[in-house]
Amino acid sequence: MSRRILVLAHTGRRAAMAAAQEACTVLHDSGLVPVMRRSDLVDIQSVYGRLTNPTEILDEDVTLDGVDLGMVLGGDGTILRAAELVRGTNVPLLGVNLGHVGFLAESERADLAQTVRWVAERAYTVEERMAIDIQVWLDKKLIAHTWALNEAAVEKADRQRMLEVVVEVDARPISSFGCDGVVLATPTGSTAYAFSAGGPVVWPEVEALLITPISAHALFARPLVVAPSSVLAVEILTRTDAAGVLWCDGRRGVELPPGARVEVTRSPTPVRLARTHSTPFSERLVRKFQLPTQGWRGPVSHTGGLHD
């Protein structure tokens, strides 16, 4: 029986639609069955006409249980959207970067045909990335429950007013300060919003949770790295009547009135990402940020893995 590969693309971008059309053709030529969501297929056909190769429709011809892997064509935002679709299933995601930095992506647009060949040959491994479980409480009532792969960001709702918050770890207050917000992140999210807010880069293999204040008005409001078993909390104090908003992976928003409390724990359900390269994270970090390494002599020896 032919393996089915789900193709997910940012159909709001013409480059992504062209890449999806090419991916379906190469998948079919490699003996695999491309699968798409009907809405994505309709968008692509409205621009390029009917696809030349048979393409099955997700939830009509096949369910996620019958899909082997998901190829995501776009930037990190597209991969985060795809994670919402497949989380909780055995379907890993393999990202092909069409965006800018693309930390979650495994390959670039120019490598699309080679990436499909690796998928056909099962020449990839699967990593399980930690996600976080997020609960929002108000007056001891649960008003929202969601999750994130990268981060939960508590931000001020009014740009002219500062948030007054208390940050807690394991039910103990660590600090109280005025700020523009607080980012509660995973190691995967350490290179995203948390990084831009001044947080540390944490290698994906490290099991930890991060707390990074945003523009905190305090002498000792520093980023923290805590155990993955910890319970993190950010509570908005009522003394200024300033409201906030919670953004999960920059996609799902929850209003936070004064007195709201956001609690974050490690989620029992990770996100599965496929990897076709053995390149260590340190090298990928340098490549993504294009850090200068001229004149570096390097190690005496190097051992490879899947694909360099």
Automatic annotation (TrEMBL):
GO terms for cellular component: cytoplasm. It catalyses: NAD(+) + ATP = ADP + NADP(+) + H(+). It is an enzyme of class 2 (transferase). The keyword Disulfide bond does not apply. Keywords: ATP-binding, Cytoplasm, Kinase, NAD, NADP, Nucleotide-binding, Transferase. One of its GO terms (molecular function) is ATP binding. The keyword Acetylation does not apply. It is found in: Cytoplasm. InterPro entries: ATP-NAD_kinase_N (IPR017438), ATP-NAD_kinase_PpnK-typ_C (IPR017437), NAD/diacylglycerol_kinase_sf (IPR016064), NADK (IPR002504). The active site is at D76 (proton acceptor). Its EC number is 2.7.1.23. NAD(+) binds at D76, G77, R81, N150, E151, R161, D180, T191, A192, Y193, A194, F195, S196. It holds the Pfam family NAD_kinase. GO terms for biological process: NAD+ metabolic process; NADP+ biosynthetic process. Belongs to the NAD kinase family. PANTHER family: NAD KINASE (PTHR20275). This is NAD kinase. It comes from Arthrobacter saudimassiliensis.
